[in-house]
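Support reply, case 0932

Customer input (verbatim):
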Amino acid sequence: MSTPLRRKGGSTVIWILMGFLIFGLAGFGIRNFGSGTEGIAAVGDREITARDYAAALRQEMDAMSAQIGQPLTLPMAQMLGIDTQVRARLIGDAALAAEAGRIGLSVGDAEVARQITTISAFQNAEGKFDREVYRLRLDREGLGEAEFESRLRDDITRGLFRRAVADGVAAPRGFVDAVVAYQGETRDFTLAELLPSDLAEPVPAPTEADLKAFYEANPDTFTRPETRVITYVWLRPEDLAPGMEVDDAALRAAYDARRSEFVVPERRRVERIVFGDQAEADAARARLDAGTATFADLAAERGLAPADIDLGEVTRDDLGQAGDTVFGLAAPGIVGPVMTDLGPALFAMNAILPAEETPFEDVRDDLLAEARLEKARRAIADRRQAIEDLLASGATLEDAAREQGLTLGTIEFNDEAEGGLAAYSEFREAAAAAKTEDFPELRPLQDGGLFALRLDRIEPPAVLPLDAVRDRAAAEWTQAETLKRLKALGEEQKAALDNGATLESLGLVTTRHAGFARGGYIADTPAEVATAVFATTAGQSAVVEAARRVFVLTVTGITPADPADPDILRLRDTVAARAVQGIQQDLLALFTGAVETGIGITINQRVVDAVNAQLQ
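Our regenerated output:
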């Protein structure tokens, strides 16, 4: 079953409300599209405005940005096809609205009015519909009441179409049964990893012929990537820090400014339950005192999980007006009810964490090192202009290093380079982009340092000579030969297992797994092993080579999904719900596609391009 992206849920009006009225997307330039007559597309007698397209596209981009944790640019959105999906959805909605108009399907004014009064954006502080708020909201976004109500009417009508097409769909029982049986089946198996110590004899050291043959058969393993030979100058705060003078007065001032780091007040581990009124809180306290309920019982009765009542480690000030009462306890216990900003509350104090103070003398050396580094950063910033002027005058990196006391070095830079200057992303970006004809440019580093580089030459990828990689070749050969012998041993053991032997009888260290579910995880084991478990029938064995390791397993039992198991019942409900959703989406896609085919669609690419340009 397909799940077309263009049929993604959500109505046009809701997009407009969320996009304009709540999130203020006009601030992103959407307001600039105005209310001109030219739209991005015409669908029958319906037009999709540039503003609607811009709002929908911006909201979809914002949603994706939140999902991936970084801003999504329009080129990125286009690469993912988001702009195409948005246009397809808007065209589908317009097609349904046009079809509704053609056949005379609509909803009455009373339903439109009812829907408007339920929209929170049009309600006052008391949560009631306010006609003045309604008018002002629409006016601020450049929407007339008639236009908005027409859109809302279209949206409700499309809902009628969708329900007519998709309601009443049931998941095919055979399909659900098959999926549940597949997903709910569990297996019992025994597993052993073959280790070098399991071999009859150790793998010998490779001969010269072995090394040469392995080296020649695996040239990619011993190929050095394209390498950029770079000369650089580098000035680090650490280079200047030892010579920076810092007096004790400055260190003490730094200590005082950061006193909260070094002087931690007494804290308590506290839980809190807030009640609706004083009588309810008093009754709860009486039950505690009578021993008929515990603090945890009271929380559970109010539907509160342990995380909901746990305040963690708090200071006296953190508790506000309850601070003195809670901190008045000399040992763990329960106090209250105490009136708080949230209402009367009971507090359980579970542990006392004494105040901690780190004397100045204990952190003086750390403060001195930090202060010296900070002064060194400022000194580097002060020297930056002089170094830039020197390079701009035509001085070489060698000249700059000599005259300004900079570190001069050479690095063979490629993707494998690490440590030193190659550990900085700023250097790696500059090194990758450098050209031999570039003049050295002084650049900052995130730690306050500076560097400049010169690309001397680019050496193409090359297979390194055997003598240069002999040790690595020997290690790689040994690992490959060990793996090969372990795999052969595994096949021998599988033959024995298929003839009735057990892993334990073969002298292997084994682990037993019972009730292992499909998609399960085996600690410190490649995923291929779990896959092999479900590809092997009961009573049979398998050898698995993965991640340069070899495993042997025997499936000892297969347990079908139990139809009465609560977990299987929940799985069945989930599978059925997803199947229904997929069928509904397919039906809606087919219906909408048929409507679009017969209604006629024209896309104004020039307006689409103009909207996209403003969203760049």
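We compared this against your earlier run and they match. Two observations from our side: The chain has 23 helices and 19 strands. The mean pLDDT is 88. Please reopen the case if you see a mismatch on your end.
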